[in-house]
């Protein structure tokens, strides 16, 4: 008997884990590999979680999530994103944005539907598409365009089987932020070709240089065909609390609910009560974003001073994606040798899609002191390559 399903066999385990396992075995390691904030959760949210436990909020909530939280999210979406989603019918609280993504793909993908996925991008989009029975079609985003996904690249890959375009802005691993004009053009493509859009906006508050976050679902005719996926993990340093949400038309949310109610039942109750304080935490979010921006500036300047490395300036998230092609090493060999020789963890760019080959992802969700030390070690590593 073949125990594992064909679908699961088609999926590779995440290559990122391997680097954490290698790093754990070494001493004196500095990790620039981590994809989560190094900050504590804001005090108000922490306090909300403690009170939720004290008040015995240990029960299931509505499958949709706490009505009060959905109302607050609906207000936030209206005010900040210009998305008009009814709190009762068009918002679903999920266990992290990961569940939101999983529900989104599983709800809309039919066997052999083609899903356009930016490359490089977050590691879950391709496997989740495959697990839903779809066919991932990668759309390259190039360094010369600061890794922004361009409408013409999307257009080139349309076929009769295309069902959906995935957008991720700000992007993990490149930090690219899509321009409003490009989003408008991508929306036109979606409308003209009757396509869905899954828009992952998890890093919306981590944006620098006065760049603007723009939600595709705010455009005319786009709300009906967009699933906006968001959550609290990155901006509110709540990764372990597993809380996210999706906003979409009623029919889509009802479809997602069919999976959510059997698979997850509801998002964690304590986390939902804690998140009720999210709109009181603007200052904390802003303060964290300010620190990330300073770290980004430091990395951007110093990486470009290292011989044979270059990096475009990321506009968002907490990653920078330097070009290491001059080293003559593949992304994986670069990361492995840097770890073995200089005890610095970075993540090979190819793990985020084939267009990430020749790059590595550096996360700046670690202290300035660690970043400074790591930069010295990377400089030494490049020097020792004797190029
Ligand atoms: C772009 C992007 N989307 C979604 C996720 C999933 O995050 P979570 O499930 O914690 O909300 C991540 C995590 O790294 C991410 O980088």
UniProtKB/TrEMBL annotation:
Pfam family, one: Aminotran_1_2
Cofactors: pyridoxal 5'-phosphate
UniProt EC number: 2.6.1.-
Gene Ontology terms describing biological process: amino acid metabolic process
Keywords: Aminotransferase, Pyridoxal phosphate, Transferase
UniProt xrefs under Gene3D superfamilies: Aspartate Aminotransferase, domain 1 (3.90.1150.10), Type I PLP-dependent aspartate aminotransferase-like (Major domain) (3.40.640.10)
InterPro entries listed in its UniProt record: Aminotransferase_I/II_large, AspAT/PAT-like, NHTrfase_class1_PyrdxlP-BS, PyrdxlP-dep_Trfase, PyrdxlP-dep_Trfase_major, PyrdxlP-dep_Trfase_small
The Aminotransferase class I/classII large domain, residue ranges: 28-378
The keyword Cell cycle is annotated on this UniProt entry: no
CDD domains according to UniProt: AAT_like (cd00609)
Keyword Transferase found: yes
GO MF terms held by the record: pyridoxal phosphate binding; transaminase activity
Coiled-coil positions: none
SUBUNIT field: Homodimer.
Family per similarity comment: Belongs to the class-I pyridoxal-phosphate-dependent aminotransferase family.
Protein name as it appears in the record: Aminotransferase
Species per Swiss-Prot/TrEMBL record: Candidatus Altarchaeum hamiconexum
């Amino acid at each position: 008997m073949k125990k594992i399903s064909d679908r699961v066999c088609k999926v590779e385990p995440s290559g990122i884990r391997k680097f954490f396992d290698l790093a754990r075995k070494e001493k004196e390691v500095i990790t620039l590999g981590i994809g989560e904030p190094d900050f504590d959760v804001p005090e108000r949210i922490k306090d909300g979680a403690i009170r939720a436990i004290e008040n015995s909020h240990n029960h299931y909530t509505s499958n949709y999530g706490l009505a009060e939280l959905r109302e607050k999210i609906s207000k936030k979406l209206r005010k900040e994103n210009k998305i008009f989603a009814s709190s009762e019918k068009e918002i679903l609280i999920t266990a992290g944005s990961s569940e939101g993504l999983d529900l989104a793909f599983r709800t809309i993908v039919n066997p052999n539907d083609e899903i356009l996925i930016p490359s490089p991008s977050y590691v879950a989009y391709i496997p989740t598409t495959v697990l839903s029975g779809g066919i991932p079609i990668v759309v390259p985003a190039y360094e010369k365009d600061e890794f922004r996904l361009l409408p013409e690249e999307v257009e080139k890959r349309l076929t009769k089987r295309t069902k959906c375009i995935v957008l991720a802005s700000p992007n993990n691993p490149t930090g690219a932020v899509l321009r409003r004009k490009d989003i408008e053009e991508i929306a036109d493509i979606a409308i003209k070709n009757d396509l869905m859009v899954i828009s992952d906006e998890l890093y919306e508050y981590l944006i620098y240089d006065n760049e603007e976050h723009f939600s595709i679902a705010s455009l005319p005719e786009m709300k009906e065909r967009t699933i906006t996926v968001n959550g609290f993990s990155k901006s509110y340093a709540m990764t372990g609390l597993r809380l996210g949400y999706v906003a979409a038309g009623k029919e889509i949310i009802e479809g997602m609910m069919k999976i959510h109610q059997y698979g997850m039942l509801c998002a964690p109750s304590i986390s939902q009560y804690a998140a009720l304080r999210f709109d009181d935490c603007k200052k904390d979010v802003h303060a964290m974003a300010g620190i990330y921006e300073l770290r980004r500036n430091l990395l951007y300047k110093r990486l470009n001073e290292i011989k044979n490395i270059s990096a475009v300036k990321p506009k968002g998230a907490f990653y920078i994606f330097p070009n290491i092609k001059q080293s003559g090493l593949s992304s994986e060999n670069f990361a492995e040798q840097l770890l073995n020789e200089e005890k610095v963890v970075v993540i090979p760019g190819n793990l985020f899609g084939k267009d990430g080959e020749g790059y590595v992802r550096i996360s700046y969700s670690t202290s300035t002191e660690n970043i400074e030390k790591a930069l010295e070690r990377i400089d030494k590593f490049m020097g020792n390559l004797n190029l």
